[in-house]
Fold this sequence. Notes:
The protein contains eleven helices and 14 strands. It is an alpha/beta fold.
Amino acid sequence: MRILVTGGAGYVGSHAIRSLARHGHRVTVYDNLSTGHRFLADGFEMMVADLDDAPQLSRALSDIELVMHFAGSAYVGESVQNPRKYFHNNVQNGLALANAALDAGVRYFVFSSSCAVYGTPEKVPIIEGTRCQPVNPYGETKLFFERILDAYSRTYDLRAVALRYFNAAGADESGEIGELHYPETHLIPLALEAAAGLRPPLEVFGNDYPTFDGTCIRDYIHVTDLAEAHALAAEFLQSQTGDAFTALNLGTGGGHSVRQVVAMVEKVSGHSVPRRITERRPGDPPSLVADPARARQLLRWSANRSLEEIVASAWKWLHSGKRQRVSAGAASVGEAPN
Length: 338
């Protein structure tokens, strides 16, 4: 298929375009590079433009069969401080993309959604039928756009899948691409950087949760497994005859606590992780773990890589030449956290 990937120069998007190419699809990346990095999409056709640039978007959608939408803002804390930005980037720009796709005759749409749509669930593992009650604007915007796709699929000739990620982590096994956020907020890269002496001690937000060791439990999924699910979702949309809109959880079905992740980082890196316990963050659920049974059934997909493989690939990426050059450049202009 001919696929337009918005945000394809970002973390998950850059892994997804490689998976799509391995499956034989023709990929065009559409990214404004505000948070993405051009080198993460090396070797792929790219248009550098905003989603609210109607002429450029219309040109990009010419001859496209499927849109895969990663572009958007994705910091929970920032969404609380600046909800206007999040509703603009994630809803208004998403709606512009959906409308332009319809106008261009696009029939298939894959959306990068989030487990943030669930809020604080009453029970885990979480199934797709769990009531969606987001607790922050980021989750609200993801759910809002899912509802747009659901409504459009009921009325127009559009089939759509929303893939609700749990905790994406790790890097491509080649060491050529990986996670590169400024600021970085994810546990595994923060712990690895602390172990490498690249940042101050890791902050552990609370150790008094009602979990087996007092720290939060999350479902960590290797980004390569996640990318493969997107390629399979594209093929599912072509072949499926069921509901026009489908929401699917992407996770492993198992969780690891913050303490377990830190212990794995220490095992893989061979260094201790300096850390300090701080206050809980408001709205952090004690446990978020996916029930991925529906994705296994419909996509014939499962997450195959272990936590150790996730951490090992991220450690390799941290020490890669590309990662270090880009980080040094960002630090020189004051972008990297310290």
